[in-house]
Specification:
single chain; 278 residues; alpha/beta; 5-stranded parallel β-sheet; 9 helices
Amino acid sequence: MPDSLSNFINGQAVPPLSGRYLDNLDPATGAVYSRVPDSDAADVEAALAAAKSAFPAWSSTPAPDRSRILLKLADLIDANLDALAAAECRDSGKPITLARAIEIPRAAANFRFFAQAILNTREEIYHTQPGPVQADRAINTVLRRPRGVAGCISPWNLPLYLFTWKIAPALATGNTIVGKPSEMTPMTASMLAQLAMQAGFPAGVLNIVHGRGQPAGAAIVSHPDVPTITFTGSTAVGRWIGQTAGAMLKRVSLELGGKNPYIVFADADLPAALDTAA
């Protein structure tokens, strides 16, 4: 039987509460080589409870201490370069040379960049000059504070690279995470969870829930206790996220659409191909 992946909640590998799994296919052969949790709102609720519980301590952890943990995780990614590249290659079907030379090193670089950036942030004070109504000078203070739980939903095309691009800045600035990688390329995110524990992340700071956009991703986006959403994927889903999160006044980052060519071979069903392309 194929190996079964687990969700990563509160520092533990846990099965989906429903017991349901999705087949993860090797794109080179079409064979099932692992099973992925088909998580739903109950799994998201468990992950969110862990993230909310971990937030007070993590958000008050001094920036140098958070920085050291992120740098340790970057070192562990480098140390496991070959294993991560092999997993990315098998999961996504891309050349292993690409994963080894660009994608896995960039994942480590994402953590290093934000680990160093938080050591150079500062709060600011601005003086407002008197105006016709204002008799005295006013002082405005800019405070940079963590927001809470960040929902991070990443795509299949650059699995670890884009997942870390989302979670690294959120973790660095004191937020906790409920992340959902693509159900088509879940392997490196699952491996990252284990490396995060080795790096010293407290339980509940980083939580990973596997599954489909509906219901797992939708549960993250629509939950009232997730004030920040970052998503990379289709324009149609991004439009729904904008409507849903906008109505709830969430902070949202969307990277949408695509720029890749669409190739139609001579033996294709042309009407079906045109409908799909359009």
